[in-house]
Amino acid sequence: MKAVFGRTPTSPRRLRDVILAPCQRLGGLLGVLAMPYLGAEAAGASFDFEVLQARAKALALQPPRARLGEVPAWLRQLSYDQLRQIQFDGRESLWRRENLPFQVQFLHPGFLFDKSVHIFEVQGSTTRALPFRRNYFNYGSIPSGDLPAGMGFAGIRLMYPLNGFEKPLSEVGSFLGASYFRFLAAGAGYGLSARGLALDTAEAGPEEFPVFTDFWLERPDPEARSLTILALLQSESVTGAYRFLVTPGAATVTTVKAVIFRRRDSNVFGVAPLTSMFWRGENTGGSADDYRPEVHDSDGLLMQNGRGEWIWRPLENPRQIRVAAFADENPKAFGLLQRDRNFENYQDLEARYHARPSAWVEPVGAWGRGTIRLVELPTKDEFNDNTVVFWTPERLPPLGEAVVWEYRLHWFMDQIQPPAGFVRATRHGRAAYYEPGLERFVVDFDGPNLRTRGEADGLVPVLSVGAGAVLNHATLQKNLINGTWRVAFTLKPDGKGQAVELRCFLRHAQDVLTETWSYLWQP
Fold first, then answer.
1. Which of 38, 322, 393, 466 has the greatest count of CB atoms below 10 A from its CB?
2. Distances from the Cα of 247 to the Cαs of 98, 220, 243, in angstroms?
3. Which helix (H) or strand (E) holds 473?
4. What's residue 35's pLDDT?
């Protein structure tokens, strides 16, 4: 594992809380500004995923072209609040009249959405365009001006009876802004997002934001429990064909297949990226200016590597940009989790951070050698995403050959926990009066097996401290109040200010009883 500090890349953050509908936020704004446009789909043309792959490959051989169907100035000049007044009329939802289990609503361009995407319906093997229509929307007090004939939509919102057979249907997911998308599980509110591809994230130069420019929605059967969406991705460096199979439920699963063609090499090629927000947590302390103890969409990165080891990396709001890379071969899974579900730790009835979903990437097939890369950026508030994680392959095929990835993306509320114990909490601070010059860390481990064990069972904490500090003292205690086990230890920094890598797990004899706590402390 390596850590990199002090770079000044273009931030992968997105503007938060731009609400186009309840809980709908804006994502990846800068990536939608100047991208190529495919062109109108011929009505009735035969179409499937193989056709889309061939089209993406052909486009990769051409220079990027300017997009058509620009959003007019009067829409681009709308404020955030004005755009919120433009609401989609739910009676115009796609497939509502057919009473199909899935419905699709369209999102209006404007404000920072100054380029539009084009939507098509696929029935059987034929397509039909779904053009923008003014009567789909209620404009409130906004005086509407002229709309060009070629303008599309800002994105789409998917509706489904997520919590049973409710009418009207619940929102289950959306595609909005660059290649961002996100989904909900039953009982969850919107939180972190996924992206189609991350290019040159946290590099010295500008980050590139590929964009979904066109979507094809396959008409579902009356008894369907899944919806298939095809999308064309384009940027200066790549084109790609994407297939999403969306299966909503208590845990919503999005199976993603991406076939990507590169026009040129990128310094960082990030597969299955997730982006989230971490402002404050139990490991960072509270704020004198904010009554809420913790504020975050996700509190940790969980990984199950190719060797079967489970690793928990608590998130941080660092003082400077940092990148960590976890080398692996054929990873089993990784994801950003909201592990803490206790409302008392957030105290936010509006944002409901305790109900933000987790997202878990499960590769399909062998991904080979590469790294799971975690990027953390400093933020002064909760309105910017400052965390992104993705897989970077060690090698890619030559330019012109397809880069193919497939994975299942799980969105859920119930926790994914390793068979052994897991980290329940991480805390850090100082006891200046009797520990001068020392840093104290407290890590709580939990799990059904651990709760049955007593202090006479001979559990041992296994601690490792990287360069930059030395271990001063460590203890392991059973918490008789809640049944967890607490490792408390102090470090003596060497005064050079370098980042210190910390690891800890619990062992009994030769048996590893917990996941590995992995933490990067920056003096």
1. 322
2. 20, 12, 13
3. strand 469-478
4. 38
Residue 309 burial class via C-beta count within 10 angstroms: exposed 0-12, middle 13-18, buried 19 and up: middle
CATH topology for 422-521? Immunoglobulin-like (2.60.40)
CATH 2.60.40.10 residue spans of the chain = 422-521
d(CA 512, CA 499): 27
Report residue 229 as tokens: 């969406």
Does this model's pTM top 0.85? My answer is: yes
> What gap in Å lies between CA 319 and CA 380, rounded to an integer?
10
Average pLDDT over residues 70-95: 93
- β-sheet bridge partners, residue 441: 428, 489
Q: What are the φ and ψ backbone dihedral angles of 522, each rounded to 5 degrees?
A: -105, 110
Q: What is the pLDDT of residue 21?
A: 33
Whole-angstrom CA distances from 450 to 85, 132, 341, 446, 478 are: 53, 57, 20, 6, 9
Q: What is the pLDDT of residues 436-480, one digit of tens each?
A: 889 999 999 999 999 999 987 899 999 999 999 999 999 999 999
Give the separation between CA 64 and CA 35, rounded to whole angstroms: 8
pLDDT in tens, 251-262: 999 999 999 999
Residue 523's closest CA among 458, 443, 437? 437
Per the listing, tokens 């009329």 go with 89
Determine the Cα–Cα distance for residues 252 and 317; give it in Å rounded to an integer.
29
Match domain 2-412 to its CATH number in 2.70.98.10, 1.10.3720.10, 2.40.50.140, 3.30.70.100.
2.70.98.10
